[in-house]
Specification:
Shape: globular
Low-confidence stretches: 520-524, 529-538
Number of strands: 12
Distance between the termini: 41 Å
Helix content: 40-55%
Strand content: 5-15%
Radius of gyration: 30 Å
Oligomer: single chain
Strand order of the largest sheet: 3-4-2-1-5
Structural class: alpha+beta
């Protein structure tokens, strides 16, 4: 770090410490005032400033779109329907998408329309009014594998502006596996609606027939339920009644979903083309005529249209009672393998191996711990350590044995997943002599970057039961993880322990452990680095 940077860090530290004192002072008498809340906000900002200056800030690097061309792109989306897009228009779309998603690999871009809405309008400008540009993109490895929770990934990897809907590949695959209607429409839309489709995208359509996806129970149930639930409510008599505030566009969406459901019974692909709404049963054609009349005359009875929709739904529902649903695993295997190949981009996976001399010892330890840990492969184990009193040297003959295990899911499993993977499991309880908590590598890294005290103790600990080469490589950088966030975690632990000690006036046996945890040096050095031992304490 340069002299200038050191001075910046020193000044930021001084400002932070001064504001910490102000915060503690205000906490005594101004806790429920606007002043106190402003002090809290300022404190968080100062911590962020310091972490950026000292290099400890680790923000999630999510894909970012450039907004400079969004207005022009939106105009194109709301000007065209698939049949009006010529070569010149397509090139214009591709250029604007390329500029908006600069540096991001776009696998597919589709101009999505509602055929039922399009058929009810006379002018192209009106037909395109509710268009959506649906984009599926591929993130970088470090983004997809980032040590952040799934909620953040869902938030950062899905961009929804109404007219623009962009999703990362995993989310699209996840939605297909669940049978989400809009994603199924995108996959099986007509070629005229495809603005961009990479070779990988074409391969998925070749490998996954529409009959497999449209006969997923999730897809069928979603189309059946959502076709009515958005515009109707069930009364006490079990019958659906129209919600008075239902819009014209909502009616069109409901008929679109019913059309999908009807096509399932007829072994037809999802209805994504207005020209296909011409060979439907009489009840559906009656609904189409009423929608067209409603577009021209708002006084047309919405209840009549709703009654037609319900009749069509009842008829189709009867026909799908004997439907043979697709096995979920069949679809998961196809899209999972395709996602894996797409993400690897031709690269080969390498599987870490356990040193032969350690294999039997590691296997024995896994069997001793038992439960889910015993079912893992030795190659998945990154660390096995004893936590609790054993970590602090406070164990007695009657102490429980508490193991902490860090493991990794196979890369193939992570890269091909169609849904969230369980990232931890544990076996704990007052009646168990041997307890354990196991954390997947991604969750472990998330907790480490958040400054979890227990996790920091593991990183700074020595002589753990088993340490893989990956673990040994990580701990070489362990001083980097003692950050502002970590300090705050330690301060919180100290305050909590003091409160517990204050409540326990009789001096119970656990006091030694609480006092030992409070003994932390001025550098907030993890306990495992301290030279003092519990036996040295009075």
């Amino acid at each position: 770090m340069t002299e200038e940077n050191l001075e910046s860090v020193r000044l930021a530290t001084d400002a932070l410490q001064a504001h910490e004192r102000l915060h503690l002072h205000l906490k005594q008498s101004h806790r429920h005032t606007n002043v106190f809340q402003k002090a809290v906000d300022t404190l968080e900002n100062l911590r962020e400033v310091k972490s950026v200056l000292d290099g400890s800030a680790r923000n999630f690097d999510s894909p970012q779109i450039c907004e400079d061309h969004l207005l022009e792109l939106k105009q194109q989306v709301l000007m065209h329907i698939p049949s009006s897009v010529n070569k010149e228009n397509q090139e214009k779309f591709q250029d604007l998408i390329s500029k908006t998603f600069e540096g991001i690999e776009v696998l597919s871009a589709v101009l999505v329309t509602c055929p039922w809405y399009q058929e009810s309008q006379d002018e192209r400008g009106e037909q395109a009014r509710h268009n959506v540009l649906f984009i599926v993109y591929l993130s970088q490895d470090h983004q997809f594998l980032a040590p952040v929770n799934q909620h953040i990934l869902n938030e950062k990897f899905v961009e929804d502006k109404g007219w623009l809907y962009a999703v990362e590949l995993y989310h699209f695959v996840h939605f297909i596996a669940k049978g989400k209607a809009r994603c199924v429409e995108v996959l099986y839309c007509p070629d005229s609606a495809q603005l961009i489709q990479k070779d990988q995208w074409k391969q998925l359509k070749d490998q996954l027939s529409f009959t497999k996806v449209t006969k997923l129970r999730g897809y069928v149930e979603a189309c059946k339920g959502q076709s009515i639930s958005g515009i109707g409510k069930k009364g006490k008599d079990g019958k659906f009644r129209l919600v008075d505030s239902t819009t014209f566009h909502q009616f069109c969406d409901s008929f679109r979903l019913m059309n999908h459901l009807y096509n399932v019974t007829a072994d037809l692909p999802p209805c994504t083309d207005a020209s296909k709404i011409s060979s439907l049963p009489d009840i559906a054609m009656k609904g189409k005529e009423l929608l067209h009349k409603l577009y021209k005359d708002p006084d047309v009875s919405k209840r009549d249209i709703f009654d037609v929709l319900v009749q069509w739904r009842d008829s189709v529902t009867e026909n799908i009672k004997g439907l043979q649903f697709t096995e979920q695993q069949d679809v998961d295997e196809i899209i999972g393998k395709w996602q894996l190949e797409t993400r690897l981009r031709g690269r080969q996976l390498t599987i870490p191996k356990v040193i032969p001399d350690e294999h039997s010892s590691l296997s024995n330890q896994m069997q001793e711990i038992g439960g889910q840990v015993a079912k893992l492969h030795p190659e998945q184990i990154i660390l096995i350590a004893q936590a609790g009193s054993h970590m602090y040297g406070l164990a007695t003959p009657t102490s429980d044995v508490d193991f902490l295990v860090i493991y990794s899911e196979p890369c193939q499993t992570v890269l091909s997943r169609c849904r969230e993977i369980k990232d931890n499991f544990e076996s704990r309880g007052p009646t168990k002599l041997l307890e354990y908590g196991a954390y997947e590598a991604r969750l472990f890294c998330e907790m480490l970057l958040k400054g979890s005290v227990i996790i920091l103790e593991l990183v700074f600990g020595e002589n753990h039961n088993y340490m893989s080469p990956q673990w040994k490589e990580l701990v070489q950088q362990r001083k980097c993880f003692v950050t502002e966030k970590g300090i705050q975690q330690y301060l919180g632990l100290i305050q909590n322990n003091y409160r517990m000690l204050d409540k326990d006036k009789d001096g119970a046996s656990k006091d030694r452990k609480l006092l030992y945890q409070v003994c932390i040096d001025y550098n907030f050095q993890p306990l495992s680095m301290l030279s003092v031992k519990p036996t040295d304490m009075v």
